[in-house]
Amino acid sequence: MKIIRVKNYKELSRKAANIISAQVILKPDSVLGLATGSTPEGTYAQLIEWYKKGDIDFSQVKTVNLDEYRGLTKDNPQSYNYFMRKHFFDHVNIKQENINLPDGMAIDPDVECFRYDNVIKEIGEFDLQLLGCGHNGHIGFNEPSNFFAKGTHLVDLSDSTIQANKRFFKTIDDVPRQAYSIGIQTIMLARRILIIISGKDKAQAVKNSFFGPVTPKVPASILQLHRDVVIIADEDALSLCKK
Ligand code: GLP
Predict the structure, then answer these.
(1) Is the pLDDT of residue 243 over 80?
(2) Protein residue closest via CA to atom 3 of ligand 1
(3) Residue 234: which H helix or E strand, with range?
(4) Three-state SS for 31?
């Protein structure tokens, strides 16, 4: 576990973008596991800037997103599909056929989970998995539980996640109650994991995830067992941890 301590969100975003761009420069056909949420927005913005300067080429990159709300269409501004286009895909030369997300509108959740796991199997090993972290230590939408989920599954969102994500919706009733998420096993099979965490409100999650016991009650704690995990966290997020 390598912890990179940064001053603030801006520095976090640049460092994360540096690691992702190095990955793509060294292996132009990299498979990237990608994340949504407000934390990676700055990272994507930085990658777009470097792409526009001609420093990175995404033409051979393949992406697999972590999760998607159930019941939101791709054109719903709150869907993760929309988020990814708005904050990243529409601004770089990634090929449409190389982009993968769960389909929030799939009729049969079991069929959708099976389909997405097959996409993951076909695409092969993820070179780099980017993650954010929820206040309760969730990664993707793997919520605190009694076990670690292996593959893609439909999740009942926890009250704390619904509360945390309501800021993106008009009212709390508009927040979907369910979402698709890739499993913990899929995340753990990535060659390298990069988790980015910012802000005082995440300090307890950082302490529990990386300095407490490994438990499915804190899903991100499993990352302690991964052989190549890089944590980029700002001073606020690390404020409950010793230097
Ligand atoms: C969401 C996403 C996660 C994300 C988390 C934290 O629920 N499913 O992938 O890491 O929230 O989001 P934020 O970065 O906005 O705090």
Answers:
(1) no
(2) 140
(3) strand 229-234
(4) strand
Q: Is the CB of 140 under 6 A from ligand 1?
A: yes
Catalytic residue among 67, 112, 234, 236: 67
136 is catalytic: yes
Of 102, 84, 89, 33, give the one whose Cα is nearest residue 58.
89
Q: What is the pLDDT of residues 81-117, one digit of tens each?
A: 999 999 999 999 999 999 999 999 999 999 999 999 9
Of 36, 69, 161, best ligand 1 pocket probe by most atoms within 8 Å of the beta carbon: 36
Is residue 166 pLDDT above 80, yes or no? yes
Please compute the mean of the pLDDT values over residues 14-33 and round it to a whole number.
98
pTM of the model: 0.97
The question of whether 68 is a catalytic residue gets the answer no
Q: Is 108 a catalytic residue?
A: no
d(CA 178, CA 200): 27
Partners of 62 in the β-ladder: 31
Residue nearest to atom 10 of ligand 1 (CA): 132
Q: State in Å: Cα 98 to ligand 1 middle.
A: 23
Specify the pLDDT at position 162.
92
Q: Among candidates 123, 115, 188, 107, which has minimal Cα distance to 153? A: 115
**CATH node for 2-234:** 3.40.50.1360
How do the domains of the chain map onto residue ranges? 2-234
Query: What is residue 128's predicted lDDT score, i.e. its pLDDT?
Result: 98
Strands 99-100 and 62-65: parallel
